Amino acid sequence: MNLIMFGSPGAGKGTQSNKIINDFDLKQVSTGDLLRNEIKLQTNIGKKAEPIISSGGLVSDDIVNSLIEKNISYHNNFKGLIFDGYPRTMPQVYSLEKSLKKFNQKISLVISLTIEKNVILKRINGRIICTKCTKIFNIYFYYLLSLPVF
């Protein structure tokens, strides 16, 4: 089972994906996480992506699509994937369709999250990321995002 999770930044894609992952034993594929990992590892892709992301730009479809195909190709992902915020463009849609077909996979469900603008702004503006553990917190909601309130 493969899912696509759509929604604006701060809509809760990651939070909802984590809940689905735990219930159905799927793996989340977030282009942001993939790119951050490439940057952290200082791979060729990471070195190309870092200045683009740092300046607020979007990384090219070619780079993103290659990262997605690499994840689809991993044998242990065949139980299912949740694509978090991908695809974003029509070329990405076509690339995903081609990659899934190549590995005999398909999309089972598309989920679109809608949330009020004022809530999105509060979620995004309140985000802080721990530089040691990389977990995300929110100063307005007082909890660790993607985990139950404690």
Describe the structure.
The chain is of the alpha/beta class. It has 6 helices and 7 strands, in the order βαβαααβαβαβββ. The strands form 2 sheets. A 4-stranded parallel sheet has the order 2-3-1-4, sandwiched between helices. Helix 2 (31-41) packs across helix 3 (44-54) and helix 4 (61-73) runs parallel beside helix 5 (90-102). The two termini are 31 Å apart. The relative contact order is 0.20.
Protein traits:
globular; alpha/beta; about 150 residues; about 15% strand; 7 strands; 4-stranded parallel β-sheet
What can be said about this structure in brief?
It contains six helices and seven strands. With 150 residues, it is α/β, with parallel strands linked by helices. α2 (31-41) packs across α3 (44-54).
Blueprint (SSEs and pairs):
Blueprint: E1 3-6, H1 13-24, E2 27-30, H2 31-41, H3 44-54, H4 61-73, E3 81-84, H5 90-102, E4 109-112, H6 117-125, E5 127-129, E6 136-138, E7 143-144
Parallel strand pairs: 1-3, 1-4, 2-3
Antiparallel strand pairs: 5-6, 6-7
Helix pairs in contact: 2-3, 4-5
Q: Write down the secondary-structure element order.
A: EHEHHHEHEHEEE
What value does the Rg take, in angstroms? 16 Å
- If strands are numbered along the chain, what order do they take across the biggest sheet? 2-3-1-4
Strand content: 15-25%
- Percent of residues in helices comes to 40-55%
Low-confidence stretches: 145-150
Please provide the count of β strands.
7
| Backbone structural class | alpha/beta
What composes the largest sheet? 4 strands, parallel
- End-to-end C-alpha gap: 31 Å
Q: Please tell me what the overall shape is.
A: globular
Q: What's the total helix number?
A: 6
Average of pLDDT: 85
